[in-house]
Specification:
Layout (H helix, E strand, L loop, with lengths): L19 E5 L12 E8 L2 E11 L2 H27 L6 E5 L22 H10 L17 H13 L10 H9 L27 H20 L5 E5 L4 H6 L13 E6 L6 H7 L7 E3 L10 E4 L5 E3 L7
Parallel strand pairs: 7-9
Antiparallel strand pairs: 1-4, 2-3, 5-6, 6-8, 7-8
Length: 316
C-alpha cells in the first residue's frame, strides 16, 4: 500500500441505489358482524345509481352462507387481479421500499466479500477496516481480499460484537454504514477538523482528501479501541505555507493529507495512551512524548513503513 499521490486521483465510491419491491395488495372482505338483525344495502342491476335496503333475519345458516359467498368473491377477485397483472393492466399496489442505508450517499457494497475477492469494493472495505490489522502492520490497500484483510475484518467484527468469520457481509456493512457519514468520513471525525490548515481550510487536491479519509478511518478505529473516548485533531492536512509556518518537516506526511496530530478529548485518555494504542490501529508513523517537539500531541500517519517513537511513554 502506498500513499495516494496528487497525480493519482481516485474517485469516491459510486452510490448504488437501493430499489424497492412492490407487492399487489387485495383487500379481503371481513367476516360479517355477529348480530341477529341488520340492514344490508341492495343495488338494482338495472340502475347502479340507486339502491334500496332489505331487512333480513340472519340465522346461523344464513351467516355461514354469506361468509362462503364472500370468500368465493374474494378468491375470484384475486384471480382477476393476477390475470390483469399478467396482461399489464394496472392494479392497486403498495410499494414496499427497503430502508435506505445510513451512508448510501457515500458508498454501498453490492455483494458479500471474502477471501479471494477483488475489485473496487474490496478497496473501499480495506480503507474502512485498515485500523484493525494486527499490531505492527499497515493495511495493503490494493483491492485484493487476502489474509490481512480477512484478519482486519475479523478484528472489526469482534470489536463491534458481530459474528466473527472474517467475511464482510450484510451485518458487517450495516455497522460500517452506521459509522460512516455521507461524505465518506467516519462519524466521529470530519474533514474540516483534519484540514484547518493554519485557519485557511482545505486547499489541497482530491488525492489529499483521499489520504485524509484513510487516516481518519484509522483514527476511528483507534478511538473505539480507547473505549470510544473522544479524540481531538489539532492538525491534519497542511499546504506548504502552513507547514513551513509551524516548523513542519519539508517531507512531512501532513503535506499529503495522510497525517493527524491527536490529543485527548477528555480526561480518560492521555497522549501516551493514544500513541501506544496507535500501534494496533494500522498507523505506519507514530510519534509522541520523547520524540522532539511531540510532548503535547501524538502524531500518527498512514506511511507504509513503520516509524514509531514515543520513548517517554511508560511501556513503549
Amino acid at each position: 500500500m502506498s500513499l495516494v499521490t496528487p497525480e493519482r486521483r481516485p474517485g469516491e465510491g459510486v452510490a448504488v441505489a437501493q430499489g424497492g419491491a412492490t407487492a399487489t395488495v387485495l383487500r379481503a372482505v371481513g367476516r360479517p358482524r355477529k348480530r341477529a338483525w341488520g340492514v344490508l344495502p341492495m343495488h338494482s342491476p338495472r340502475d347502479m345509481g340507486t339502491s334500496r335496503t332489505l331487512s333480513v333475519c340472519r340465522t346461523d345458516s344464513s351467516r355461514e352462507e354469506t361468509r362462503m359467498r364472500r370468500n368465493r368473491l374474494t378468491h375470484a377477485f384475486a384471480a382477476v387481479a393476477l390475470a390483469l397483472g399478467g396482461l399489464g393492466v394496472a392494479t392497486a399496489t403498495v410499494t414496499a421500499t427497503a430502508p435506505t442505508a445510513h451512508a448510501d450517499e457515500c458508498y454501498s457494497w453490492p455483494r458479500t466479500l471474502s477471501s479471494g475477492a477483488s475489485g473496487a469494493d474490496v478497496t473501499q472495505l480495506q480503507i474502512r477496516v485498515a485500523g484493525w490489522v494486527p499490531r505492527g502492520q499497515v493495511m495493503g490497500i490494493d483491492g485484493s481480499f487476502g489474509a490481512q484483510t480477512k484478519a482486519a475484518v475479523a478484528n472489526f467484527q469482534k470489536a463491534y460484537g458481530l459474528t466473527v468469520d472474517g467475511v464482510a457481509g450484510p451485518a458487517t456493512f450495516t455497522k460500517i454504514y452506521a459509522l460512516q457519514d455521507p461524505d465518506c468520513s467516519p462519524v466521529h471525525f470530519t474533514y474540516a477538523e483534519a484540514s484547518d490548515n493554519c485557519g485557511k481550510g482545505f486547499t489541497g487536491t482530491a488525492a489529499n482528501k483521499e489520504n485524509m479519509k484513510r487516516a481518519l478511518w484509522r483514527a476511528e478505529a483507534l478511538r473505539h479501541q480507547l473505549g470510544d473516548h473522544p479524540l481531538t485533531v489539532t492538525s491534519g492536512f497542511r499546504d506548504s505555507a502552513c507547514n513551513a509556518s509551524v516548523g513542519g518537516a519539508s517531507n512531512s506526511v501532513h503535506l499529503t493529507g495522510g497525517a493527524l496530530d491527536l490529543v485527548p478529548g477528555d480526561s480518560a485518555t492521555s497522549i501516551c495512551s493514544i500513541a501506544k494504542q496507535a500501534r494496533y490501529a494500522g498507523f505506519g508513523g507514530i510519534f509522541g512524548p520523547g520524540y522532539p517537539a511531540h510532548d503535547d500531541h501524538a502524531h500518527v500517519d498512514i506511511r507504509t513503513t513503520i516509524a514509531w517513537d514515543a520513548d517517554a511513554c511508560a511501556g513503549w
